[in-house]
Amino acid sequence: MPFLLCLVALFTPRLVVALLFFYTQWLHKTFDSLLWLIPGFIFLPTTLLWYTAVQHWFGGQWALWPLVGIVIAIVIDVSPAGSRRRDAAITYAIGLFTILL
Asked: What is the pTM of this model?
């Protein structure tokens, strides 16, 4: 199951972050407040997911493979495809905010 979640996270990381936030304690155990979750959700969702995976699966130890994974996650998030996803998420958030007002 974690492997399937990782594959889905590569294509829709914000969906996986939202599912983990609402249905598990993964993000709640890693972060004490929403201060890091909200910017991570908007700007670097794949990096946020990898950081929480390292905290849970590797016990927070930043050895070779966790560092390689964080570099790959950052590259995915700052790539042109990542910026398109980020722009879509910001547009969606603005639209949702205007509907709520």
From this structure: 0.72
